[in-house]
């Protein structure tokens, strides 16, 4: 239960925290997000003082409240919290966390783990919460965000704390968790969060960072697209080049687009260039004093295809970087990748994956520009549409399903459009609890296969006050007629100690 008592300084800190969380939410969730709708948690013995407070507060999108996971004294105890989403997904996952009385650091969570699950089956991706997935805010260092790109479909995420990882009287706060999606004008649900997006709907505008393409000669033409809205027709001359302004892009990236060409297309994204012809795809990597490339035989024909190219760089270790600088290389020279692993997908099928070994000339100047370049080969009729760029390598499972998000079954490996967010759960038939109807006028039916014998339910209002409690002997729950309409939190605790929480809406 929360106490809403604020002194001036406490109120200021709280307001600042809410503002920071709102800003982080805006940065990481510019597109519609799906929030966790229920939760489950367990505290295993022996662990004196281990607890989970306000477990329901991690559900939904309220920025101002949180659930607290507290560790006490014990060598074997564990606290686990599972946040459950309404459907399976391959979308990016974000969890906003904080501490109550100290600075949040990755070292503080050095033995805390996180994993995704499909129902009660682990996806086998359990990992320590470290600086690779934890971003600390730029203000007071007591909150941050965990970001994951799961490689398998999931509908829940579990955070586990082992005894001893948090000092006595410290806590881990979980504010909320959400899956981020990116929805295009044709309602295709794509992976969030892209770095760049060119829809080419009658113009060359990039809608995320305003890095517009501009023609070097006559204006471009557009036509109705088979994919989404309009499509860009690239002029059929080497002199007709579309180029953006400076693009501060990471080496790691995923480039995704639809295209057809009768001769050839060149697409350059920062240090990566892609050449598509009727019988091959060639990928080049550029840097100070080097240019490496590899050609992959692929029969593209003149039909419309979906292409995805990923670039995964390998960098020098700190010791190797020091040796490079001692041998005369600049800090920039010695910071560029030594290898880039390229993967090529066409219509969701992985055609090739190969390394480009990079041996730069450290005496060469640094490149002064990273641009986007579109270029058609001579005498070519070339069309491109829906260009997306991510500053990360999307998982293989996501890339296989990416063209399926559009209503073009001929370009989907399965032959049937299947968006990256499933319409239904694929939860295994155990430990499932659903409530209906919701909203309700007072009667609630419990469904699923949670054991009812010995189960007790608690109903709290949004201030944390308990307003109803009952031991269950059936799957029907009648709320008191005296309860006013509004939002309530129903918690069900089974005889074996497992806890499930759902939000309910009471109407009159």
TrEMBL record:
Signal peptide (residue range): 1-30
Domain Secretion system C-terminal sorting: start-end pairs: 437-505
Domain of life: Bacteria
Keywords linked to the UniProt accession: Signal
Pfam families in alphabetical order: Por_Secre_tail (PF18962)
Protein name, per record: T9SS C-terminal target domain-containing protein
Source organism: Chryseobacterium rhizosphaerae
């Amino acid at each position: 239960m929360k106490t809403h008592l604020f002194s001036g300084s406490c109120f200021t800190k709280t307001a600042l925290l809410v503002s920071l969380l709102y800003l982080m939410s805006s940065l990481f969730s510019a597109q519609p997000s799906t929030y966790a709708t229920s939760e489950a948690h367990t505290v295993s013995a022996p662990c004196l003082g281990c607890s989970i407070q306000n477990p329901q507060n991690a559900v939904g999108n309220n920025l101002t409240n949180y659930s607290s996971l507290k560790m006490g004294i014990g060598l074997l105890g564990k606290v686990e919290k599972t946040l459950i989403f309404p459907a399976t997904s391959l979308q990016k996952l974000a969890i906003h966390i904080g501490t109550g009385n100290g600075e949040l650091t990755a070292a503080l969570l050095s033995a805390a783990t996180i994993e995704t699950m499909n129902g009660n089956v682990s996806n086998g991706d359990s990992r320590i919460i470290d600086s690779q997935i934890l971003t600390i805010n730029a203000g007071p260092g007591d909150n941050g965000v965990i970001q994951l790109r799961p490689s398998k479909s999931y509908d829940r995420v579990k955070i586990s704390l082992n005894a001893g990882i948090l000092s006595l009287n410290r806590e881990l706060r979980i504010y909320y968790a959400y899956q981020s999606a990116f929805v295009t004008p044709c309602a295709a649900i794509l992976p969030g969060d892209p770095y760049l997006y060119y829809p080419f709907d009658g113009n060359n505008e990039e809608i995320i960072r305003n890095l517009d393409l501009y023609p070097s000669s006559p204006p471009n033409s557009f036509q109705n697209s088979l994919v989404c809205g309009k499509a860009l027709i690239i002029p059929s001359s080497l002199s007709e080049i579309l180029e953006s302004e400076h693009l501060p892009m990471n080496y790691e990236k995923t480039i995704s687009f639809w295209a057809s060409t009768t001769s050839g297309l060149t697409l350059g994204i920062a240090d990566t260039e892609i050449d598509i012809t009727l019988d091959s795809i060639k990928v080049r990597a550029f840097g100070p004093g080097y240019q490496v490339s590899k050609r992959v035989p692929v029969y593209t024909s003149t039909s419309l295809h979906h292409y995805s190219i990923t670039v995964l760089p390998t960098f020098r270790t700190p010791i190797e970087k020091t040796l490079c600088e001692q041998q005369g290389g600049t800090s920039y020279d010695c910071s560029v990748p030594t290898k880039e692993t390229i993967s090529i997908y066409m219509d969701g099928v992985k055609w090739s994956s190969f390394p480009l070994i990079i041996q730069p000339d450290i005496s060469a100047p640094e490149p002064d520009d990273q641009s986007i370049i579109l270029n058609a080969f001579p005498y070519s009729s070339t069309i491109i549409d829906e260009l997306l760029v991510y500053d990360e390598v999307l998982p293989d499972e996501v890339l296989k399903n990416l063209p399926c998000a559009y209503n073009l079954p001929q370009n989907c490996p399965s032959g049937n459009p299947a968006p990256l967010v499933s319409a239904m759960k694929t939860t295994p038939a155990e430990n499932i609890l659903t409530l209906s109807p919701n909203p309700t006028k007072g009667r609630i039916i419990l469904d699923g296969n949670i054991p009812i014998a010995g189960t007790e339910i608690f109903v709290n209002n949004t201030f944390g006050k308990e307003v109803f409690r009952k031991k269950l002997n059936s799957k029907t729950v009648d709320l008191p007629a005296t309860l006013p309409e509004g939002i309530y939190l129903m918690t069900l605790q089974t005889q074996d100690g497992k806890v499930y929480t759902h939000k309910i809406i009471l109407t009159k």
